[in-house]
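Ticket #4471: complex job returned nothing on first submit. Input attached below:
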Amino acid sequence: MVTSETSVPIQYAAVPMKARIDNEMDTKQEPAMEVRDLSAFYGNFRALRSVTLPVPKQRISAIIGPSGCGKSTLIRCLNRMNELIPGFRVEGEVLFEGKNLYDKKVDAVEVRRRIGMVFQKPNPFPKSNYDNVAFGARINGYEGKLDEIVERALRQAALWEEVKDKLHKSALALSGGQQQRLCIARTLAIEPEVILMDEPCSALDPVATLKIEDLMRELAREYSIVIVTHNMQQAARVADFTAVMMMGEDRAGELIEYGPTNEIFTNPKEKRTEDYITGRFG
Amino acid sequence: MTTRSAFDRQLTQIQEEMLLLGTMVDNAIERSVRSLTERDIELARQVIADDLRINKKRYDIEDKCLELIATQQPLASDLRTIVSVLYIIVDLERMADHAEGTAKIALMLADEPPIVPLIDIPRMAEIARQMLIASLETLKDRDADRARALCDQDDEVDALYDKVYGELVKLMVDDANIERATHLIWVAHNLERIADRVTNICERVVYLVEGKLEELNVSTY
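Support reply: We reran it on our side without changes. The output follows.
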């Protein structure tokens, strides 16, 4: 019987989370982002407790966990999207290119341009397909050839062939799956480095879901992607790394395990991960 | 607290059926060697006929495992359990083929005068059967340490095989009983392979419990 070369056991339970994460990371490559000891609060309610997590460059990272465990709060912390909620605040750091995103000198709009986001429900603007994709470039004052940007983004989003003859028709006429790919194209058009996806397929049928997943694998050649998903099979199919979150006793979300996706889904180290992914949670 | 009781029942069922298959195979090994030592043609024929039942049982379990994979999307220890069962039933079925091979030799030798008293071959069968039953117990008990320790017994079977082989080759040279001696070497080889396959089961137990693929009992040859 052949022994896997990668089967060297790592005793996770005895190693602090930060050390575990360092162990799993490709040390040759800097992560695209790093979350360090991040806690998040909505008023007096603590939604996240001391999360430390890398976002590996040009890889897909999935965040999974039961409802209310802080997945969406965490992903929205990665581009300061939560700041729009009154009473929200963070402690800790989210590093991007070595700088803390929450530093007062950092411009939140620029953060959201470079760290794009795709939401749960496709949300195209009530405009043409073309105008949806060109929207970001226009408001950023881009003066180059918009046609090229729109075509490149639509091709990257695997939507060009389906919409090239109806670029000036309403985006609302597209199917749900097409609308979501249009939203991805809209994100890509402003050339972000990181793409955050908060349950991007939850409103889509299985075929549209698989198309988005294929697209994500293609995009990961160029972009670093973080996806929040309730669908564990989806995380297993698309993600290179998976973070598992759970709710603590005070209902604050905690990161309980992080590692290569294949290990999380075949041999998790934490009992709570095992119970959750095998459906024996609750 | 479990929220998948139907799935849990199905998982338990495939493991129970695998243990039943193991018992059928143990029975086949015991009867095949007894048919040889007691020159019992009828018993040998039963072992050969029963091999079809064993094959069918293996495929039935395999079907159930594939159905669970397709319909339940098992993960983590559930996935490792099903994968382990899939591998173990193949090893069990192949052990039964070795027993069938021994029973066929028993038929061939039934009318021939014995060339040597059969002492070490039944001893090999006894150790191999003990190993088989113990390996299935380690699976039931999820006992990876005992599974590892069990593999050491394979060395005893290997040593007995070397002894039997040497004696039979010598017999061929001295007395020219080449055909009968060759047949007995095949029997010893069948038993040696059965013990090897038990170590495969032990490796699967370690995988199931600890999630590690680990080679146990590396050959010293």
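The interface with chain B takes residues 1-4, 7, 9, 232-233, 236, 265-268, 273-274, 277-282 of chain A (CB under 8 Å). Closing as resolved unless it happens again.
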